[in-house]
Amino acid sequence: MKSLNVISNHFTVSAPIVQENLLEKYRSMSNLDVKFLNKLYYGNHELEMKQLEKVLIENPLFKTETQEELSRQDEREVGIKKMRVIFDEGRRIVEPSTLYNDPQRFLIFGLPTLIYNQAIATKFSVSFILYFKTIDNLGTEIHQKYKDRLIEQQSDVGCFALTELGHGSNVRSIMTTAHYDPKKEEFIINTPTDLAMKFWIGGASQTATIAVVFAQLYIDGKSEGPHVFLVPLRDKRTFEVLPGLIIGDCGKKNGQDGIDNGFIIFNNYRIPRENLLNRFSNVTKEGKFETTIPNIDKRFAVQLGSLSQGRLMIIGSSPRLLGYATKIALRFAAMRRQFGKPDEKEEVPLIEYPLHQYRLFPLVASVIACKITGTKVYEMWQDCLPELFDPESTKVPEIHAITSSLKAIHSWIAMRGIQECREACGGLGYSYYSKLGILRNNFDINQTWEGDNNVLLQQTAKYLIDIMQALVKGKKVQTQTCHWIKKTPVEGQQNETTTEEEFLRGENLYAVFQHRTNLLLQKSGMKLAMAMAQDKTANPIDLWNNTQVFHLNALSKSFGELFIVQQFHTFIKKLENDELKTNKDTKEALSKLFQLFCLSKIEADLGTFRDGDYLTSEHGDFVRNSILRLCGELKRHIIPLVETFYPIDELMDSMIAPGSGDLYGSIVNKVYGAPKVFQRIQNWEDIYLKK
Amino acid sequence: MKSLNVISNHFTVSAPIVQENLLEKYRSMSNLDVKFLNKLYYGNHELEMKQLEKVLIENPLFKTETQEELSRQDEREVGIKKMRVIFDEGRRIVEPSTLYNDPQRFLIFGLPTLIYNQAIATKFSVSFILYFKTIDNLGTEIHQKYKDRLIEQQSDVGCFALTELGHGSNVRSIMTTAHYDPKKEEFIINTPTDLAMKFWIGGASQTATIAVVFAQLYIDGKSEGPHVFLVPLRDKRTFEVLPGLIIGDCGKKNGQDGIDNGFIIFNNYRIPRENLLNRFSNVTKEGKFETTIPNIDKRFAVQLGSLSQGRLMIIGSSPRLLGYATKIALRFAAMRRQFGKPDEKEEVPLIEYPLHQYRLFPLVASVIACKITGTKVYEMWQDCLPELFDPESTKVPEIHAITSSLKAIHSWIAMRGIQECREACGGLGYSYYSKLGILRNNFDINQTWEGDNNVLLQQTAKYLIDIMQALVKGKKVQTQTCHWIKKTPVEGQQNETTTEEEFLRGENLYAVFQHRTNLLLQKSGMKLAMAMAQDKTANPIDLWNNTQVFHLNALSKSFGELFIVQQFHTFIKKLENDELKTNKDTKEALSKLFQLFCLSKIEADLGTFRDGDYLTSEHGDFVRNSILRLCGELKRHIIPLVETFYPIDELMDSMIAPGSGDLYGSIVNKVYGAPKVFQRIQNWEDIYLKK
Ligand SMILES: Cc1cc2nc3c(=O)[nH]c(=O)nc-3n(C[C@H](O)[C@H](O)[C@H](O)COP(=O)(O)OP(=O)(O)OC[C@H]3O[C@@H](n4cnc5c(N)ncnc54)[C@H](O)[C@@H]3O)c2cc1C
Ligand SMILES: Cc1cc2nc3c(=O)[nH]c(=O)nc-3n(C[C@H](O)[C@H](O)[C@H](O)COP(=O)(O)OP(=O)(O)OC[C@H]3O[C@@H](n4cnc5c(N)ncnc54)[C@H](O)[C@@H]3O)c2cc1C
After folding, report:
1. Residue A358 near ligand 2, beta carbon < 6 Å
2. How many pairs of residues across A and B have Cβ atoms under 8 Å apart?
3. Model pLDDT for residues A233-272, shown as the tens digit of each residue
4. Taking a C-beta distance cutoff of 8 angstroms, is the pair B293, B393 a contact?
5. Which residues form the domain of B197?
6. Alpha carbon of B40: minimum distance to chain A alpha carbons (Å)
7. Cis bond before residue A112 (omega within 30° of 0)
8. How far apart are CA B3 and CA B670, in angstroms?
9. ipTM above 0.95, yes or no
């Protein structure tokens, strides 16, 4: 242990008892197919990602987060410098536009950055996905130069200004105005009230020179709904805010302090007519409004397109960040002993406790489940791209529905999972140097931005209700995600499996999730219909809101979980019939993780699964018994498995999870190396002697 | 709105639409009996608490947490200064020893500090409860002076050194040694290995001059188990660490950075014989060991007595901190509008959404439930005090069992509740200035310290199994908390209520929780017995560990919830039969909150309640329908109710919950007033122009 050297500078402490390397021991318990698992994790992008990874490991600018204890201002300065380095090095490896047009590739290439520091990853998402994609999606040729300015000249840094102080979820009602002035051929942007100030805009307060701004377009006093404008914010030579704007900082946050979220107030701020992103709507010189999407709401939906891609990033990054946390917590669980048995010399490693397994192993199952699902959704997205701006596309609403649900589920699973990891590491998990608190605090906001989870679920519900209504009316419905919908009532049906083995079969587990989703869909539809029948004058929005709890909200979650189960199930079937080839241990581990994922989700909502006695008490026992058995059986696979999770040891930034297996050496070294470790309290004379 | 003044210094923004004061509107919807609710909240200690509160409001040293953005080192310095002020002013109001001998009084008197800054409250808990009480509990007359030195001369600051790097939950196995040297009549304290270093010791790294240190006592090489010693740490004139010690800082944490947790390494560190706290064990000059508690484990249990009182503080403070969070989230919910209805000018306040009610109202019910329960437990504790060190007492193991369970449940409820509050406030809940992140990050550790929740539950389970075994053997059992235990099997019993009304009766709800607890107790007992019968050679500790998940762990939680339900139920009965007198609205609100509390707990674990078909699908519908109805009915009471939660407006430190009702004015003022709000990024020339 290096630590002893440090201590011996003070005086000698007798050498510690040489301990068995437990991490090595657990690592060698299963022979997992690392290549196969890497392919699952990184798709085809591992090699290019590795090149970027090298930069973060080798460039001395990149100290680990837990080493730096920066003030908010310093964090920003250092953050932007790092972003520049990553950008410069990254574009040598992959051409930026190929990246942001392929979410899976963007995700994997961005992994080192994400794992290293979530705020820097956010900076990339804001400028690549929110800013660039908005220009790509909504702009025309003349607007492309604004992207090039960043990519080629690195002079522009863009931000995305949608949210206002008064409107976040309901951005349809933003209050910033853009009036057209035909005399000067300019738009005049205004912030009519405090509530209308742009708020939370990532990058706006200190770093961005330009923004895509959403504002209500007015022509001759008539509103044409929200439109998007390119709006310069700062003088690029002095970096001062341009006249006519007030820009300030939203202040300290619960996390992500590396990104400078700002507010923007416009006071008769003028921009040229060409700055309207005019792919779908245009204003002529004379002030005539033209549009290819006459429906104002559909037009708005199209304008929000880049948010969907943001959601895809959350779907993909959530399991990776949770994977990081589980890697920390499980390595710790393998190395940390606590409590012994009489007659045994050594205490028991935490990982041996069934309770500890039960707390952590289902999280690992979730990581795999969400990863597989994410990949599928990325495929669906790529497939849907050609239709993205076709108002008649059936794929677009569907991908919107499924990503809305999955964004919510994945981010909830990760948030709650990271917190469980922190708790499972006891006091040491509360150390900043465990990284678990950092992961949680930064991650938290994924539940809110790019659409608040509970609000997104309502959009999914709307899709499902629409599909069901269409089906009931006998319409033909094009769908990849809704084959499970039954037109006949499912209430009163019973699951017919009678043994644990039958219950655990993939087909059955899949059927169980289908049942719950059908039940909730039918119940929700019924409740809505009955309420409408009872009170014909009632406001449909009230009925909708009254049907959220236990109905539409639960339905959307159930739908998302069903989709995950379906993807995982399909994957396992491919393993079983050798469509996907791997070794025995890997097959066993993944199959058991599939079961564990399903069972722990059933257990968490057993009340609903038992509704209408679809499952019986005995099924409940199957579920619980199997969870325990599976955890026990998975023990030998779990460390080798989390070892394949990102990041590699050079980027692991947790003192409680050293790859060497030397837990206590790692802790002591980290703590001894922290700033001001040996110190009286500042100004101690003032505090103590004056008394 | 004041904000407009600030803005108008730059230029004019047209005045905001004058909005209805929604907070006032919701406040006036119910006529709650504030005096009655205050009594419930503060017991008899409101007036003295108010005096201390005044100090925090009036003394300019006390800037709010969200105003100060301090470095770790500054936070500590400022923290200890504030602690001194509170201490000085506080002792003028109440004599310190009356305080720390009465947990309820300590809690209420400490409320302003707790709400103001959790780390400062921790400092008080460490020195008053952990340090002082250890001396009181285990010391004899000669040791009292160490307390007086703090109280009278304010020269000593004490800390509590139990945990080591290698041992936190299993402190019975700590490795620090204390060998007696009869020649010099001294103990020699040593840290034999890295794992034995004292770790996490609150106050040790920078502020404490003395510690109570737990070490294995050796006489002539023979171990007598852990004992407690008074150990000087620093020279009080220079504040330097004394020779023979290494003391350092554990570093940055996920929260509570105001408290300086440190590690301590002892190298043949000598202390006088008298420094052994020798109430129960003594070492004579000659080196003879004497004890009044021959059993080494019982002796150790007694030595941990002050931790129990620490647990009481968590039981009492959890609902208060959650109360603070719900006050923030619900005020916000009343003032924040989002989404409208066609034909209505104004958007709908969040509090009107059933989904939002469902997310937050059960948390308010928990606050009340846990508060009532806490008060009861404090009474039991006071009642038990005279027997605290009587190894034959039946009350001591009982209070230990119930506080262990409640410490876990209360802290979990609060932690998860605070997080839900943050999420319910959307992006603004992610602002540091909402205070919700601060509350969560500091609170988190309550789940771990004073005994990790999952470990504590095992101690409760042990008590319950012992009681059941005694009962089965026909022994007479003295208990205040276990009257519900049935000797006859409950599996297969059914709840006989057939209407929602019947189901909701207090007696029935109470019976439902009794049933679950009996079921889990019987199942756990059975599982243990069967496992033992199956394999007579098995290690009982393995059997125990294998019976945690879904059994003993669930049992202990169920027992704690049952106790809460019982206390709340008793309280409601007193309201109903006018033993407690209050007005109609208050009665209605509290009765409905009682039902909501029970129902939301049933809903969360419906799977278990449905086991053996004790509850039917129809009961499940009762539960869900009633939750929704109750939320709707509670809407008019909820704001007036949270308004009675601590703190008062002068100490409210959340920009999203101003008492004035002017949500946006408050936000704008706060954000404008934060440090460096209008600023280019530091060293922007380096970052941007060099390109
Ligand atoms: C760190 C950070 C960075 C951000 N970056 C950007 C950025 O770069 N650009 C940008 O434009 N925006 C940005 N945002 C804003 C973000 O997109 C919004 O915070 C998010 O859309 C949620 O809106 P809100 O905060 O106004 O929440 P609200 O809409 O006020 O919602 C608050 C709560 O009410 C609930 N709720 C709302 N409506 C309903 C309903 N109808 N029924 C039931 N419940 C409801 C929600 O579930 C939520 O819990 C950022 C925010 C943060 C915190
Ligand atoms: C900020 C802070 C301040 C503190 N202040 C003090 C102080 O002033 N003085 C002091 O003496 N100590 C202090 N502590 C230490 C604290 O009391 C311990 O952290 C706590 O007792 C838990 O022990 P541990 O951290 O070693 O967790 P561990 O014992 O390592 O537990 C880790 C995890 O393993 C699980 N686990 C452990 N055993 C079992 C089992 N048998 N079965 C199933 N699961 C198990 C636990 O549930 C937990 O999730 C402090 C800690 C912190 C973080």
Report:
1. no
2. 372
3. 999 888 899 999 999 999 999 999 999 999 999 999 999 9
4. no
5. 157-294
6. 32
7. no
8. 9
9. yes
